Amino acid sequence: MKLKALIATIWCLAASAAFAQPSHPPDIAEIVSHGPIPMFATFSSILHTAGMDETVAGREVYTLLAPTEDAFKLLPAKALAKLKSDPKLAKEFISDLLLPGAYDLSSKSMSWAAGGKALGNGPHKLKSISGSTVVVAVAADGTPSFNGIAPPAEWKTPWNLTNGRIYALSKVLLQPRLAKKLK
Questions:
Q1: Which of 83, 99, 117, 157 has the fewest CB atoms in 10 Å of its CB?
Q2: In which order are the strands placed within the sheet that holds 117-120?
Q3: Residues spanned by the domain of 50
Q4: Low-confidence ranges of the chain (pLDDT < 70)
Q5: Residue 161 placed within a domain
C-alpha cells in the first residue's frame, strides 16, 4: 500500500511539473520549435531553412498561419523537399504566412490587437510581410479561414503568445506565384 501511495505521489509531482506555468509566457518561436506536441515540426524545419527563427522570436508582433504536420502530408513530396532545402523559397513561404500584428479572429467582428482597432465583419484582405494578400473570413461558428483554409477541427482556437498569435492550418497555404516555383 505504501508503494502505491509513493507511486501516486511521484506521478502527481511529475504531472504538476509538466503543467506548471513557465517563468515567462511563450513566444511564437517557442511554440513552433518546442511546442507541447510536435505538430509544427516540418514548419519549424522550413522556418530554420529560411533563417527566420529570430524573426518570430523577437519583439515584433505577428499572426502566424502555421500548417500542421497533417497539412504538409498533403503537399507533393517534390514541393516539400524544395521548401526544406532552398532558403530563398523557404523565406518566401514563411513570409507569406506572417501577418504583421496580432489578429483576434475569434468572432465576426475581427480585431487587430496590435493596433487596437476593430476590423468589423469580414471577409478581409490582409497583407503578409511579403506583401501577399490573405483573405480572412470567420464562419458563423467562429471558425476563421485563410484563403479558404480552415484550422483543423481540434485546433480552432489560436495560441495567444507574447509576440502574437498562431493559427494552425489544415492545409498548406501557398500563394500562386510560390506554387508555380514549387512545381
A1: 117
A2: 103-104, 110-112, 117-120
A3: 25-102+150-181
A4: 1-24, 35-37, 106-122
A5: yes
Task: Say which CATH number the domain at 66 has.
Answer: 2.30.180.10
The number of distinct structural domains making up the chain is: 1
DSSP code of residue 97:
T
Q: Are the C-beta atoms of residues 65 and 169 closer than 8 Å to each other?
A: yes
Cell of 49: 531553412
Q: What is the CA radius of gyration of the chain?
A: 18
Query: Could you read off the pLDDT of 2-40 as tens digits, one per residue?
Result: 443 333 334 333 433 444 455 667 888 888 877 656 789
Cell numbers for 63: 499572426
55 closest CA partner among 99, 15, 22, 21: 99
CB under 8 Å to 49, separation ≥6 — which residues?
83, 84, 85, 86, 87, 90
Cis peptide bond N-terminal to 123, omega within 30: yes
